[in-house]
Design goal:
The complex is a heterodimer of chains A (174) and B (265).
Chain A (H helix, E strand, L loop, with lengths): L15 E7 L2 E10 L4 H4 L13 E12 L1 H16 L3 E5 L3 H9 L3 H66 L1
Chain B lengths: L3 E2 L4 E3 L6 E6 L4 E6 L1 E2 L2 H16 L4 E5 L3 E2 L6 H14 L4 E5 L3 H8 L2 H4 L2 E3 L2 H7 L7 E7 L5 H15 L6 H19 L3 E8 L2 E8 L15 H6 L2 H9 L2 E6 L4 E8 L4
Parallel strand pairs in B: 2-13, 4-6, 5-7, 6-8, 8-9
Antiparallel strand pairs in B: 1-2, 3-4, 10-11, 11-12, 12-14, 13-14
Classes of the chains: A alpha/beta (174), B alpha/beta (265).
Protein name (chain B): Histidine kinase/HSP90-like ATPase domain-containing protein
Pfam families (chain B): HATPase_c_2
InterPro entries (chain B): Anti-sigma-factor_SerPK (IPR050267), HATPase_C_sf (IPR036890), HATPase_dom (IPR003594)
Chain lengths: 174, 265
C-alpha cells in the first residue's frame, strides 16, 4: 500500500465541534477522534466561546471514539482555561478508552470533575425530592385549611339558618 | 552516542563510529556492523545493541565482522551470549555472523551455542539464505508528513486487530501507532512508513521516518503533571502500554518500534 495509491489525503481531522451557551453554561460537544490530526480543528477550544456570562463549561465527549496525547492536552487545556475564567469544568460522558487514558496519564483530576458533577447531580436530585415533599406537605396543609374553612362556612350557614328560623317563629308569635 | 537501554522496556540505539546498526522494517532484518579493535568498551556497547536489536523480535540480526579486529577471538563469548539471548527472549529470531575472523570462528567451534550460530560470507549471502518470515500477518502503509497520516495509520491497526481477532488490543495499539506517527510528522517532517506485524506472541508496530535523531523520553519526575501532559506524554503512554519499545537506526533515518504482548487473549 502506498500514499500515492490512495490519492490525496482527506482534510485534516475527523472531528467535529459544536458549542452552545445556555444561560451561564457553555456546552461543547466533540464528535470523532480527539487526536493529532485534529489539532487545528481543536485549536481555540474553549476560549473562542468563553464570554463574561459563562460560569460553567461542559465538555461532552460521548461521541469521541479515540483519544491520544494531543486530545488529552485539549482536555487539560479546557480545564485550565475554564478555571482561569472562573468557570467550573465538567467532562461529560467519557468513554472507557478515555477513562483508561486519563488514568494512564495520571490526569484523574479531569475524571474528578465528572465525579464532582455526578455528586452535584445527585445532590440536585435529592434537593428536588425534598422540594417535592415540601410542596406535597404544603398542598396537604392547604387542603386541610380549605376543608376546615368549608366546615366553618357550613356551620355558619347552619347557624344563620337557625337564626332565620327563630326570627320567623318570633314574628309569627307576635 | 552510545546504544542505550533506558527503562526496563525501552531500547534506544544510535550509531557510533564502531557500531553501525540498520533496521529494515519491511523484512524485519537488522544489520549490525562492528568496526575496530575488540575491547571492553566495544564489548559492552555490542552486547547492549544486540539486546536492543533482539528485543524488537526481528526475523534476524546479521552482524558484519569484516572490519572487526579480534586476533584472539575474544568476541566469540559475546556472540554466544547473543545467540542464547535471542533463543530465550525472541524465539524465531536468528543471529547470523558474516565475514567472521578466523580466531573468532575457532573459538565459536569450541562452544555448543557457538556452533548453532549461523555463518555467512557476506550480508547479501546472509540475506539470501533467510527465508521469508513466518509472521502470521504483516502490512505496511507509506504515508506523507501530514497530520492526517496518524488517522490513516490507526486504520491500518484497526484492520490488523480485526483480522487477528485482537479487539482488546485495538485501543492500545492505535494509541502507540498514533503517537509514533505524530512524533514522526512533528519532529522528522518526512515521509514515513507505518508497519504492523504479528511476531510470535507479540503485535509489532513500527514507524520508519527519514530523521536519524532518536526519540527523547521526558522524565516525568522533572515536570509537574500539567507540564507532563504538555510534553512527552505520548512516549510515556507507549512505555506504559508496550511490552517493549525502542528505536533503531535505518538506512534513511530511524525506525521506532513497539511490541504488545497479545498471547493472553
Amino acid at each position: 500500500m502506498s500514499a500515492a495509491d490512495d490519492g490525496p489525503a482527506p482534510p485534516a481531522g475527523s472531528v467535529t465541534v459544536s458549542a452552545q451557551v445556555i444561560g451561564r453554561t457553555l456546552h461543547i460537544a466533540v464528535a470523532g477522534d480527539l487526536a493529532f490530526e485534529a489539532r487545528d480543528v481543536l485549536d481555540g477550544i474553549p476560549g473562542r466561546w468563553l464570554t463574561a456570562q459563562v460560569r460553567h463549561v461542559v465538555l461532552d465527549v460521548a461521541e469521541v471514539g479515540f483519544c491520544d496525547a494531543t486530545g488529552l492536552r485539549l482536555l487539560a487545556h479546557t480545564l485550565t482555561v475554564s478555571r482561569e475564567h472562573g468557570a467550573s469544568f465538567t467532562l461529560r460522558n467519557p468513554s472507557d478508552h478515555l477513562c483508561w487514558l486519563l488514568g494512564l496519564a495520571g490526569a484523574t483530576r479531569l475524571l474528578r470533575s465528572v465525579t464532582d458533577n455526578l455528586s452535584e447531580r445527585e445532590q440536585s436530585l435529592r434537593d428536588r425530592e425534598l422540594l417535592a415533599d415540601e410542596r406535597d406537605r404544603l398542598l396537604d396543609e392547604r387542603r386541610d385549611r380549605v376543608e376546615a374553612h368549608q366546615v366553618w362556612e357550613d356551620l355558619r350557614e347552619d347557624l344563620a339558618n337557625e337564626r332565620e328560623r327563630k326570627l320567623d317563629r318570633r314574628d309569627q308569635e307576635s | 552516542m552510545e546504544p542505550v537501554t533506558g527503562a526496563d522496556n525501552t531500547f534506544l540505539v544510535a550509531n557510533t563510529t564502531q557500531l553501525v546498526v540498520s533496521n529494515d522494517v519491511a523484512t524485519g532484518v537488522t544489520e549490525v556492523r562492528v568496526r575496530g579493535r575488540w575491547g571492553g568498551e566495544l564489548r559492552a556497547a555490542t552486547a547492549r545493541a544486540l539486546r536492543a536489536c533482539f528485543a524488537e523480535n526481528p526475523q534476524a540480526v546479521i552482524v558484519d565482522l569484516a572490519q572487526l579486529s579480534d586476533p584472539d577471538g575474544d568476541s566469540a563469548a559475546t556472540w554466544c551470549t547473543g545467540h542464547r539471548f535471542a533463543a530465550s527472549r525472541s524465539p524465531g529470531s536468528v543471529l547470523v555472523l558474516c565475514d567472521t575472523p578466523a580466531a573468532v570462528l575457532h573459538r565459536l567451534q569450541g562452544a555448543p551455542s557457538g556452533r548453532a550460530i549461523g555463518l555467512a560470507m557476506s550480508i547479501p549471502q546472509a540475506r539470501a539464505r533467510l527465508r521469508r518470515p513466518a509472521w502470521a500477518y504483516h502490512e505496511h502503509l507509506d504515508l506523507p508528513a501530514h497530520p492526517d497520516s496518524a488517522r490513516r495509520a490507526r486504520l491500518l491497526i484497526d484492520d490488523a486487530c480485526q483480522l487477528l481477532r485482537l479487539p482488546r488490543h485495538r485501543g492500545p495499539a492505535q494509541l502507540i501507532m498514533s503517537e509514533f506517527v505524530a512524533n514522526a510528522v512533528r519532529h522528522a517532517g518526512s515521509d514515513l512508513r507505518a508497519a504492523v506485524s504479528s511476531r510470535g506472541g507479540y503485535l509489532h508496530l513500527a514507524v520508519q521516518d527519514q530523521h536519524a535523531a532518536m526519540p527523547q523520553l521526558i522524565d516525568p519526575y522533572r515536570y509537574p503533571p500539567a507540564a507532563f501532559i504538555e510534553r512527552g506524554a505520548g512516549l510515556r503512554f507507549v512505555q506504559a502500554i508496550a511490552h517493549a519499545w525502542g528505536s533503531l537506526p535505518s538506512r534513511a533515518g530511524k525506525v521506532v518500534w513497539a511490541t504488545l504482548a497479545v498471547d493472553a487473549r
